[in-house]
Amino acid sequence: MNDAYKESVNWNLEWPKNTTGFSRVLLISEGKVLMERDPSDPLQFVFHTHDVDSDRLFLAQVNDTSWYCSEVDADQVPDSIQLIGLRELASIDQHQFALASRATQLLRWHRTHQFCGTCGHQTAPGAGEHVLNCNNCNAIFYPKISPCVIVLIHKQDAILLARNIAHKDSTMFSLIAGFVEVGETVEQAVHREVMEEVGISVEDITYQGSQSWPFPSQLMLGFYAKYSSGTIIIQEDELLEADWYPITRLPDIPPELSIAGWMIQSFIRHKS
């Protein structure tokens, strides 16, 4: 059932060979993106950027522009500039969200690895790649991502949807998801997470697509799985409720900009 889940932005992550081309720095403050009104369209927001300086991390090359990122203190943000969170930005512009998502993750990694976790000495950035080196004990630190599985479980024309306890004030239902544990495959993680959270068994697991999800640094790996056996018994410290919903009578679900929303809508399209 896999429709292509396309990349949000066409970028090149190879470090630029020189800095003679056009470059911009994306500014982040406390995890939020500095945005300003687009002069050509006051209803739209664009990145608030400045010229490249020494205090920045390479992001990507997009078209003819080399993008970098840097953090600024909240009290240095001009009154005319708006701070927009990543979730809000995702609903405004997927291209801007993808770039800002990468920026916040890189900056968080750089900020939290200024000192070696092995010997405590200060780290120093390497050349030509995102790496921090400890010159005292030779430990090496790369940016880390956390792989997560997210599963659309189907039974005939119904799908299993759940409401998470972490969002108890929301009416939105979504798919079963969880982190991949050390030593297990993603398929094993699907079976385990589904059994732990809703107490059922699944089969025919098929990969659908992935999405970078910067809350804080996750890679969501999307799967479809067919119901096999069991009765729904929710993990009460994780979920408020879970049930089967016919695709013709779904509750409030995530927007299609998220991989959960996209997988649900893709399943509906194939069943229609």
Question: Any descriptors?
Answer:
4 helices; Nucleoside Triphosphate Pyrophosphohydrolase; 6-stranded mixed beta sheet; single chain; alpha+beta; 7-stranded mixed beta sheet; 272 residues; 16 strands; 3 domains
What characterizes the major β-sheet?
A: 7 strands, mixed
The number of strands is 16
N-to-C order of helices and strands: EEEEEEEHHEEEEEEHEEEH
In CATH terms, what is the architecture of the largest domain?
Answer: Alpha-Beta Complex
Helix run count: 4
Helix content: 10-25%
Q: Rough shape?
A: globular
- CATH class designation of the largest domain: Alpha Beta
Radius of gyration: 21 Å
Protein described:
29% of the residues are buried. The protein has 3 domains: 7-112, Nucleoside Triphosphate Pyrophosphohydrolase (Alpha-Beta Complex), CATH 3.90.79; 113-143, no CATH class; 146-271, Nucleoside Triphosphate Pyrophosphohydrolase (Alpha-Beta Complex), CATH 3.90.79.10. It has helices at residues 86-92, 94-112, 186-198, 259-271, and strands at 22-29, 32-38, 41-47, 49-50, 57-62, 65-71, 82-84, 123-125, 132-134, 140-141, 146-155, 158-164, 176-179, 201-213, 218-229, 239-246. With 272 residues, the protein is of the alpha+beta class. It is built from 4 helices and 16 strands. Helix 1 packs antiparallel against helix 2. The longest helix is centred in the middle third of the chain and has 19 residues, at 94-112.
